[in-house]
């Protein structure tokens, strides 16, 4: 397939992602690899739907008060300003952003790359970054869930599998935590996902990027 064909597939992938299609669905429809799709759509806003059984149907349909409206207006202005200032990341900016994210949230233990978060956007960003800058053997990717008892495990597994492109057959045994009402009232409905890639070389390459980032000179201004 020529360059023009790849451009058409890329645009199709981006349109499908914007409509809420998962990575697996896009791969099947366009007959392309998950690593390619992940790179093509990494900056496309994607909000996965929560499983039906986990939606909050009991919330009251109340109109926001003046303070809440001002808060929401400020959030929306801040989001717009953020999009204007960040725009689309260049190749180098994406590399640096991923290194910063891993330096803050990733595992530092030598031997395997591991990144955990409850925020699906963080996990999606990390997976796209990992596939973009490193030669990833998809069969060596693993995902493990931390999910409170009483929440829908099958729905959570489907959600994270579609988001990351990691098949559920490569999921580890989930950890089912017992809720403690004395500690917290809210629970993450889809749990906390840990993505692991067992490759010492890749982990050392990533840690090299993290060290370079953290020791680089900060330019005042």
Give a structural overview.
The chain has helices at 3-18, 23-30, 34-40, 66-86, 91-105, 120-133, 153-164, 200-215; strands spanning 113-117, 141-148, 175-177, 192-197. The chain is globular and about 55 Å long. Helices cover 49% and strands 10% of the residues. Helix 1 runs antiparallel to helix 2 (23-30) and helix 5 (91-105) crosses helix 8. Strand 2 (141-148), helix 7 and strand 3 form a beta-alpha-beta unit.
| Strand order, largest beta sheet | 1-4-2-3
Computed Rg:
19 Å
Q: Describe the largest sheet.
A: 4 strands, mixed
Q: Report helical residue fraction.
A: 40-55%
Overall body shape: globular
Class per helix and strand makeup: alpha+beta
Order of helices and strands: HHHHHEHEHEEH
> What is the helix tally?
8
Could you name the ranges where pLDDT drops below 50 across 5 or more consecutive residues? 1-5
Tell me how many strands there are: 4
Average pLDDT value?
Answer: 84
Distance between the termini: 47 Å
| Tally of discrete structural domains | 2
List the helices and strands and how they pair.
Layout: H1 3-18, H2 23-30, H3 34-40, H4 66-86, H5 91-105, E1 113-117, H6 120-133, E2 141-148, H7 153-164, E3 175-177, E4 192-197, H8 200-215
Parallel strand pairs: 2-3
Antiparallel strand pairs: 1-4, 2-4
Helix pairs in contact: 1-2, 3-6, 5-6, 5-8
